[in-house]
Amino acid sequence: MLTRRITYRLYPTRQQESTLHYWRKLHCGLYNAALANRKTQYQKFNHAVDYFEQQNSLPAFKEVWPEYKELGSHALQATLKRVDLAFQRFFKKLGGYPRFKASRRYAGWTYPCKSGWKAETSGLHGSLNLSNLGSLKMRGQARTWGKPTTCTIFWRHGKWYASITVQCEPARSTGEGSVGIDLGCKEAITLSTGEQISKPEFIRQGDIQVKQASKKLRRKRAPNRTKRIKASRRWTRERQKVSKLQRKVARQRENWIHQVTSHIVSRNSLVAGEKLNVKNMTRKGKSKTRQKAGLNRSILSVGFGMIGQFLDYKLAEAGGFYVESPTQQLKPSQRCVKCWELTPKTLSDRVHVCANPHCNHVEDRDVNAAQVNLAWARGKELASSVAESSSSTACGSMRQLGAKKRQKPQAS
Description:
Elements lengths: L1 E10 L2 H32 L5 H6 L1 H7 L8 H19 L16 E4 L5 E4 L3 E7 L3 E8 L5 E10 L2 E10 L8 E7 L5 E3 L4 E2 L3 H18 L14 H35 E7 L3 H4 L8 H13 L1 H15 L2 E5 L1 H4 L20 E3 L8 E3 H14 L19 H9 L6
Parallel strand pairs: 8-11, 11-12
Antiparallel strand pairs: 1-5, 1-7, 2-6, 3-4, 4-5, 6-7, 8-9, 9-10, 13-14
Helix pairs in contact: 1-4, 5-6, 6-9
């Protein structure tokens, strides 16, 4: 059994929508109260409050604030769990210190079990019943429906949504082939067969529209808390336009990646990619250059991280395998697929010409990298105990290669 998440659009009535906003405000108040309790107890009494202590105090809390009784105990416990997870991330140095949240920015709440809600659907549209609220119409489609487990209600961009997790057994058809892939900015996806998939033109046009709208936004009076300046009405309207365009481009990109990855999985049961740290790749440079900013924008526009995630779970559904090669050790863009020789290149070198005089293999750079990933996945890579030739090096520049050759042997 696998767990899948399906998001449905909710269509509440005016009275139901007012109640949903009121409940969202109450959950936000509980979140801030739990955060203030932990902070005050530690600063004044040196006492570390944990999740179970706050959970056990919920009955007394609801006696003082009776409006929380209609929300359900499990939903309130899930809100307290959010506070606990935020502090756990802080202690593990994965995030900053938890901060108080404004009610207009608080997304929603979660039902961690089947209590308090019921989804009346078989996967295509239907309705959602919430305790003390009634039935809400919802619209959406699940590829595979199963046993509902949790439900999260959230407010985003002026609309209500329900994110439902189900336990199911998804089935997907796949072929008997195997292929290696290489991700890039010039061509989004390059296959080991020589096929290249470019980023669609509508995503390029969407990026241009976002850039033009952002330029108009910068000309309006932006808010500044330090100087106590409020945003102008024109800035607010323009900000909404930019957000709408950004959401449209994000949805188009996600839909395109779904189509491309499904097409690859339908023909191949083994897909070999490379392990990329997108967060470090798109990090700002030491000197703020427009060239690095443009490279970061191109990487994020293609969606390097999403492609690997989609291939991974879709191949798992089809019974296939998705393997990622260690990029820093293997160096697919520099290694020759024929003789496994390293040939250092720069970003401007788009053709691979093997430096081994006995090989002289010539191939497109991205196609060769995809073939190297596939060869590594099949187990054709050289063993680590086998020494490489003197012209091979683990570095990525000709300067380091020359320094290694000029190094004098140590006296025994």
